[in-house]
Design a protein that fits this description.
alpha/beta; Isoleucyl-tRNA Synthetase, Domain 1; elongated; four-stranded antiparallel beta sheet; 16 strands; binds 5'-O-[(L-methionyl)-sulphamoyl]adenosine; 514 residues
Length: 514
């Protein structure tokens, strides 16, 4: 058997500084849909997410709550894991930066770079944004003298610190970005990063002494390692950097770091410098996605517009939320979340277009053919055109999902769903059923509908895994959905003739708007 091609995809590891909101769920859902697609396309996928638990911000939160940092993060991280489970996230590992396996990796990375002569001790005097855990120089601040990323006040810091000789790698990273057009995407982020480096890269302060909550510098434990140095290294830990060379060889370099646009700088400048110092190859792609805004405004606690994903999942189902996020937001751009828009998509696309197609197909198969798919023979022009559209949709799905065009892919799949609904109106099975001479024509029509739904269930599976399985079961399909591959829908006719359909169930109830 040929070896499967590996595909290593990561989300950022989230700060357990508060509960996750629907914006975080967007990033993880996106990564999950890509991971699921890649598995379908035959890749050996390793999908990683996790939590970024060290640093001053977390220490302060724990102090405010009157508990130890680890007690604080244990509780919040459990809520992350619960959310990912409810949202059906298929991650292969969950890394916590407080885990022993990770602490060992970070300290070893520090040791290796130090041994290379790329770390030195000095004094850091400058500015720090605690919410972003980010160092800034005076000239980088915004017009109000605040953090250029989050626009909150920065603090002056003056303390003994270790520095990483990042300036040494600036030219090499710039050269790499310029000669690898696909490395940073979208292109707007790439240009931003090129400009950022061209303004000059300073050495990076990689330790703090004014608080304790972090990984101790090997041999100098009054210093804790800078939280971003610690966090970025997470991508090496679960794939065997220290303990499984074969696994590491297989998955590194990562194929895709999917991150929000404000942290592209850490992933496409600082991280490559660290990797170059370790003599490791750079990740193949860093994709900076846009933000989810709520009713036109950025989500924030102070604005009181933070949308809790758990409440939404309980109310509307994980698949409906996943569908909405992936359908409504064009990757790379900001997208708007609104409850009204969500309800309207559920009613029109899920309950109406998809739900009706399944419902009428199963109903008619039951009523006209005792619930059995009869073997097709011959084809009309309208049958031919349906099949051609199905095959064209499968090809579009493959090509566009490879390019991470999720929203366009969903729109195309829904165009095929509408087209299949139109096929019902064109062929009028209820009229065929009244005419004994049209028995074969009816059999062909019902078969084509069931086969279209089989294909549709596979096409929607990266976006709506539960719904895909439910349709599969209602079609009476025997093979386990886990074994399905994209190749199974690349040819028309995989629905077994003679098969008995399963039990019909409503997929999405219509939401009544008060
Ligand atoms: N801990 C760092 C990441 C370290 S990765 C080595 C961090 N954590 S975070 O919790 O603040 O943010 C995690 C991700 O959530 C970021 O990619 C960020 O862009 C994303 N989002 C936070 N709010 C968001 C929206 N409103 N919309 C979309 N993504 C959002 O940064």
């Amino acid at each position: 058997m040929s070896e499967k091609k590996p595909f290593y995809i990561t989300t950022p590891i989230y700060y357990p500084s508060a509960k996750l909101h629907i914006g975080h769920a967007y990033c993880t859902t996106l990564a999950d849909a890509i991971a699921r697609f890649k598995r379908l396309a035959g890749y050996d996928v390793f999908f990683l997410t996790g939590s970024d638990e060290h640093g001053l911000k977390i220490e302060q939160k724990a102090e405010a709550a009157g508990i130890k940092p680890i007690e604080y993060t244990d509780k919040i991280v459990a809520s992350f894991q619960n959310l990912w489970q409810k949202l059906n996230i298929s991650n292969d590992d969950f890394i916590r930066t407080t885990q022993e396996r990770h602490i060992k990796v970070v300290q070893e990375v520090f040791r290796r770079i130090n041994a290379k002569g790329d770390i030195y001790k000095g004094e850091y005097k400058g500015l720090y944004c605690t919410p972003c855990e980010s160092y800034w120089t005076e000239h980088q601040l915004d017009e109000n003298g605040c953090c250029p990323d989050c626009h909150r006040p920065v603090q002056e810091v003056a303390e003994e610190a270790y520095f990483f000789k990042m300036s040494k790698y600036a030219d090499r990273v710039l050269e790499y970005i310029e000669s690898h057009p696909d490395f940073i995407q979208p292109v707007s982020r790439r240009n931003e990063m090129i400009n950022f480096i061209k303004q000059g890269l300073e050495d990076l302060c990689i330790s703090r002494t004014s608080f304790d909550w972090g990984i101790p510098v090997p041999g100098d434990p009054k210093h804790v390692i800078y939280v971003w140095f610690d966090a970025l290294t997470n991508y090496l830990t679960p794939i065997g950097f220290l303990d499984d060379p074969e696994k590491f060889q297989k998955y590194w370099p990562a194929d895709l770091h999917l991150v929000g646009k404000e942290i592209v700088r850490f992933h496409s400048i600082i991280w490559p410098c660290i990797l170059m110092a370790l003599d490791l190859p750079l990740p193949k792609k860093v994709y900076g996605h846009g933000w989810l805004i709520v009713d036109g405004d950025k989500m924030s606690k102070s604005k009181g517009n933070v949308v809790d994903p758990i409440g939404l999942i309980d109310e509307f189902s994980a698949d409906a939320i996943r569908y909405f996020l992936l359908r409504e937001i064009n990757l790379g751009q900001d997208g708007n979340f609104s409850r009204d828009a969500l309800i309207s998509r559920i009613n029109s696309d899920l309950a109406n277009d998809l739900g009706n197609l399944l419902h009428r197909t199963l109903n008619m198969t039951k009523k006209f053919q005792d619930g059995v798919a009869l073997a097709p023979a011959g084809e009309s022009e309208v049958d031919k055109s349906l099949k051609a559209d199905a095959m064209e949709t499968v090809k579009f799905f493959h090509d566009n999902m490879e390019q991470m065009q999720l929203s366009d892919t969903i729109k195309k799949v829904w165009a095929f769903i509408s087209r299949t609904n139109k096929y019902v109106d064109e062929t009028q099975p209820w009229a065929l059923a009244k005419d004994p001479a049209k028995k074969q024509e009816l059999a062909n029509t019902m078969y084509n509908l069931l086969e279209s739904l089989r294909i549709i269930s596979v096409l929607i599976s990266p976006f709506m895994p539960t719904t895909a399985r439910r349709i599969w079961a209602q079609l009476g399909m025997e093979p386990s959905f886990e074994d399905v591959q994209l190749a199974d829908i690349e040819q028309w006719g995989g629905y077994p003739a003679g098969q008995h359909i399963g039990k019909a169930e409503q997929l999405f109830p219509r939401i009544e708007v008060k």
